[in-house]
Amino acid sequence: LIILLADGSNAILLSGAPGSYARYPKWMHTFENQLSLDFRTKQSNALLLYTDDGGIQGNFFSLTITNKKLQLDFRITIIK
């Protein structure tokens, strides 16, 4: 799996070994965010991206490949 960072200047190459991952500093969510990533893999099933709110409200985003199909799961809680 190759991950190109948002600024396009660097790439991370993961070996594909079980449990391999890259971790980044906390991303400060705002009302409107944009994230752009390029992935290249030969895997049929993989976790590509996961982020959550640290268990505060149970919010999360998960981007996976499941049976060769891209899948986005998320939960967004809106407090009024």
Automatic annotation (TrEMBL):
Residue span(s) of domain Laminin G: 11-80
PROSITE patterns (alphabetical): LAM_G_DOMAIN
Protein name: LAM_G_DOMAIN domain-containing protein
The organism of origin for this protein: Brugia timori
